[in-house]
Amino acid sequence: MEAGGYYNCKKTDGICEDVCDSEHGSKAVFSMSRLKCALRGFDLRALLILLIGLPILIFVIYLHGQKVTYFLRPIWEKPPKPFKVLPHYYNENVSMANLCKLHGWKVRETPRRVFDAVLFSNELDILDIRWHELSPYVSEFVLLESNSTFTGLKKDLHFKENRQRFEFAESRLTYGMIGGRFVKGENPFVEESYQRVALDQLIKIAGITDDDLLIMSDVDEIPSGHSINLLRWCDDIPEVLHLQLRNYLYSFEFFLDDKSWRASIHRYRAGKTRYAHFRQTDDLLADSGWHCSFCFRYISDFVFKMQAYSHVDRIRFKYFLNPKRIQHVICRGADLFDMLPEEYTFQEIIAKLGPIPSTFSAVHLPAYLLEKVDQYSYLLPGRCMRESG
Ligand SMILES: *[C@@H]1O[C@H](CO)[C@@H](O)[C@H](O)[C@H]1NC(C)=O
Ligand SMILES: *[C@@H]1O[C@H](CO)[C@@H](O)[C@H](O)[C@H]1NC(C)=O
């Protein structure tokens, strides 16, 4: 110990030399002096570091605080119970009887009626693609729109203003409009659930009856037509079934993962079935369609959606809404809110860090998207430039 002390003294500069001379003094005096000596060194360097470093640290936490919490999510949040994934068999040349059999179901003599119900905001192009994809299998389209976003901003009735575009669905359409409540500073999820309750009413008005199939999904969660066809033709399918969709961002160029599960299909039960967008069962039918998030034609649509949707708190800085930045982010496949991947294990977070790599496959996409390529080319791989709108 003495030797250690001596060694330390040798390294000190002039200011502390007297401390070394007091080597034979009492232990208390010695350590007191050493403390003083340490504090003096502290004065010069550490204080500077503290004065400059601390504000920088606070600034970095301010900029990236949300990222830090997301990165640490595996520590503070357990992953949800895994789904029971039902294998999905499909090829266009296999008979329905055999497809049902492959899933352990029996084929019906007539298909069930199918109701497709959505809460509409402004995604006209995606709605067009969705309805054309589902059209051969849907008995009734149900659409509700509001003059308020979930975040309480006034919004135009985009569907009503463009209704003539959807002439092909008119004879099977139940349309509803609900006035927003425009409550300032309220949690956006309240307005959202208010609109979903109204949608429940509209579905009844559309004439749904027990054992009809009801699709509950956001407009941009598009079940593939053949999946709906399978479910309407087979008996014994689960009462409630989530649909696993392929997650895309901005267009079908950026394939993120196949973890979208919120879409669901229900064998309707009067008084029991409620329109919801959360987890309702453990069963998940694999590979049943596409979820194209933020798949917009105009930069202005991106700005609108960023402000309108329920996670508006993610706009931490005004410049997030800058059109040039948004265009740049879209072409890179990066995150509009500069957030980390929302995952439950470090392995998955790290695997997904950075922009989404481009895919060069446009195989197995909604048919109408490829049929109308002149109109919808911006959703295909390699066409990330958007009009300003
Ligand atoms: C698939 O079915 C279509 C129409 O039923 C038929 O024309 C075609 O030859 C079939 N293809 C194969 C590979 O069996
Ligand atoms: C929203 O719609 C309701 C019902 O039509 C109407 O009373 C209200 O004035 C509208 N609000 C705005 C801000 O347009």
TrEMBL record:
The chain crosses the membrane at residues 42-63. Keywords: Membrane, Transmembrane, Transmembrane helix. GO terms for molecular function: beta-1,4-mannosylglycoprotein 4-beta-N-acetylglucosaminyltransferase activity. GO terms for biological process: N-acetylglucosamine metabolic process. One of its GO terms (cellular component) is membrane. It comes from the Eukaryota. PANTHER family: BETA-1,4-MANNOSYL-GLYCOPROTEIN BETA-1,4-N-ACETYLGLUCOSAMINYL-TRANSFERASE, OS02G0594900 PROTEIN. This is Beta-1,4-mannosyl-glycoprotein 4-beta-N-acetylglucosaminyltransferase-like. It comes from Oryza glaberrima (African rice).
